[in-house]
Design a protein that fits this description.
There is one protein chain. With 670 residues, the chain is mostly helical. Among the domains are: 56 residues, no CATH class; 198 residues, no CATH class. The chain is 34% helix and 4% strand. The chain has 29 helices and 7 strands. Strands 5-7-6 form a 3-stranded antiparallel sheet. A hairpin with a 5-residue loop joins strand 1 and strand 2. Helix 18 crosses helix 21 and helix 20 packs antiparallel against helix 24. The longest helix is centred in the N-terminal third of the chain and has 26 residues. The termini are far apart.
Amino acid sequence: MRENEIAIPEPPADDRPNDRWQVDVDQQRLLTWNGRRRRWFWGGSVGTLALCLSSMLLIPPTTMIKPGKLAAPHAQILSGSVGKERCGACHDGASLGIANWFSGATIGHAGVKQTELCLNCHHRTISPNLARSAHNLPASVRNQLSEAFRESAKKRGDNQGAFSLASARKSIDQDNLECNVCHQEHHGIEGTLLAITDQQCQACHTIQFGSFAESHPQWDEWPYGRGGSLAFSHATHEGTHFPGWKNGAVAFDCNRCHPDRKAIAGLQANRQGELLRTVAFETGCASCHDESMSVASASGIAVLAIPIIEADVAASIPDWPTSAIGFTDGKISPLMELLLRADPVVAEALHQVPDGDLSRLPPGTPKSKAITKTIAEATATLMSEISTDGHQALLRRLGIVGGGTLPVQSILRTLPPQLIQSARERWFAQNQVTVNSMPALRLVAAGEDDLLGDDLLSGSLLDEQSDDALLDDSLLGDPLLGDPLLEGDAVDPLKPPEPGHSQSERLPASFDATRLAQAGGWYRDDLTMTIRYRGSGHTDPVMQGLIEMFSGLSDADQLKKRFMGLGSVDACVRCHEGAVRLPASWEAHPTIGGKRDFTKFSHRPHLNVSELGQCTYCHEVAKIDSESASTEAHQQVDFNPLGQQKCAACHTAQAASDRCTTCHRYHIEH
């Protein structure tokens, strides 16, 4: 049958082009290709929309969207298995809601408390209270720094320079700066959060400057007189102590004390592998200073000492040692005076003793005798308390006078109370007789035929009927003749030693600490009636504890000056100047690159340059006159100023970088 002979039904009245259905041969409706496509499109769209809506309802928006790759320090937020917040770790959940998706990026991010979210991880390095403040410093500190910069600029005649850098723009709120002002994310793993342009740094300052070499403010006083905690003069060591290196002696070498190593002699370098500020005493100092320090500390330091008092004063003190009777003498040790200060009455008496030296009191006056009696009784009481209560007696007294408990622990840890107890039992003998004072004698000149006559030795002087006036002399009735001291075997220092007994056996011998206590420690000296401590060398913990304890006293306190002037103590604080005030500093800490400074510096990259490998390229030791060298005066500035041009020779935009963040840090610890 021909095609034109097929019976085709009439199209419906509403038929129009591109209709989605057509008539099949059996006169059934059949979807066209266009019709089928439309059905799949709308069906898929509705299904996809339903899936998206269900996902939005079931999956939190803070973990569903990944807007872009993060920098390496933050990559674990999206890819790691530790945190589950994902986007919510840095973005507020309110800004990630469905409604905010259709309101634009700016509106959606408005009011986001992103800084608080940053501090959830960075609260250990940045104070939450100062996170939004410029340089993480309070306004009072910023104002002080600005004023200091202005004064420095005025002295140098620089009207812009540091003056302009210290002035902030009024249009910027210096106490409401968000983290994302400088730190921008979503630039991929190769991006760096620290990539800040100079324009960003200078946005807050009033006047900007161009390149580092041409317009950076000049500095003329670097290193600004910053000395370390150790007293060390490079000039005297180079010019006075090491002048013979040309003749074969040890040369003055910077690397000897500042080695380029990770660790040496037990001292660790910092995390960046920076040069050591100094080496250990045993490595760099002991070869020259160990012998002199041993001589200075040979006799040790007196902790307790029995003073010598007059006989009539000793008579009123029970069991006072006979060896401590005589002319008023003795120096009160600083530590004993500190312990005796716990009694206000004794403290007042000690205040009247010049420099703690009893021999400087006016002899024989009632006031002097009252002072010596008060101090002597307090000394006996102190030894009795220590013998009975041990360390608790010392802690109790130091607590009254304000001595720190931390440094005292290192002292008490090595002090045996039995040492004080045995000294008290040996020096303060029981049932000791009192001593009566001898009346004054009148000296007369003897004639030729008086006492020197031949009849002096005759028996007539002993005759009861003799008329000799000597028999009626009042001296024969003096109580001294009946004094019990004349009974028994009294020790006469002028009497020749008896057979079989040497003079040294009858008198207490001085304790030779140099021979018997070479390693240091506590010891008792019966000859001087003192309890002393001999240091064990460098880094002795007891000496360190004593110095820290006295460092807590006021600088105006004469007792602190007396203690610091002792030979054993002076051998320590002469070099460790940072230990005389609290908090005591015994080690040399790096002063360059600390997180409290705006300027940061590292020797590590500079040492890779051949010319900079020699320390003298930047650090030129300042010359001093002969008078200063002879007195070993410690100077805060050992080097000539380092000019800006030496830095600008390498730090350019095309070479070693001249960006602000190369040498300066924004976040300052407070």
